[in-house]
Specification:
mainly alpha; two-stranded antiparallel sheet; about 60% helix; 2 domains
Length: about 200
């Protein structure tokens, strides 16, 4: 499989000469060696490696805690903390705008793993998604039956003008980032709404 295909993760791997990191990502996600790592955690680990490579490229010898702490300030810190982190990196000769532009999202990691490395989750993980979807669909069916029963009861009691209303029950999810409205089952099968797909190009 080639890592030169045009996904953002593949490009960043090549840009920072992070040989072997693609294999590590796949092994961690598929749990080939130990417990499976989530896509969000993989994205954070990937971005820390990018930061570490940038510091090394600028002539530094970054310690693990320095890399983790700096990335945390950039990604999750307050604006003053992020500003301090950027100033420190700029003193090291790093273009922080370019660096942060090279950081990737969990969806970008998912695209890379599934499209470039053609990785798949172990069967039990896939079954987990199917089981959750089945649970949701059963609850939807139960709610439909309860509603139809209520319509019939109220119609018989003269509290409703008729009982043959069509009952539509569906669970939908709305992404807080892009506002996409997706059926819950579809969202679970796709591993997300895909709103970060443009970052992969």
């Amino acid at each position: 499989m080639s890592e030169t295909r045009s996904t953002k993760v593949a490009k960043v791997l090549d840009k920072y000469d992070l040989d072997g990191l693609g294999v590590q990502l796949e092994e961690a996600w598929t749990a080939e060696r130990g417990e499976r790592t989530s896509l969000r955690d993989l994205a954070a680990e990937f971005n820390e490696e990018v930061l570490r490579a940038a510091l090394k490229g600028a002539g530094g010898s970054p310690l693990n805690f320095e890399v983790a702490g700096t990335y945390e300030m950039l990604s999750d810190g307050s604006e003053p903390e992020a500003t301090r982190a950027r100033r420190r990196l700029e003193r090291e000769g790093i273009d922080t705008e370019e660096l942060e532009g090279d950081f990737v999202t969990h969806q970008a990691i998912h695209t890379y793993l599934t499209k470039v490395r053609e990785a798949t989750l172990p069967e039990n993980e896939t079954d987990l998604v199917d089981r959750k979807i089945e649970t949701i669909e059963k609850l939807q069916g139960r709610l439909t039956a309860v509603t139809e029963s209520a319509l019939g009861t109220l119609d018989s009691a003269g509290k409703l003008d008729r009982s043959d209303y069509d009952v539509l029950v569906g669970v939908r999810t709305v992404c807080p980032a892009c506002g996409s409205d997706t059926a819950a089952g579809e969202l679970l099968r796709n591993g997300g709404c895909g709103c970060d797909t443009n970052d992969d190009l």
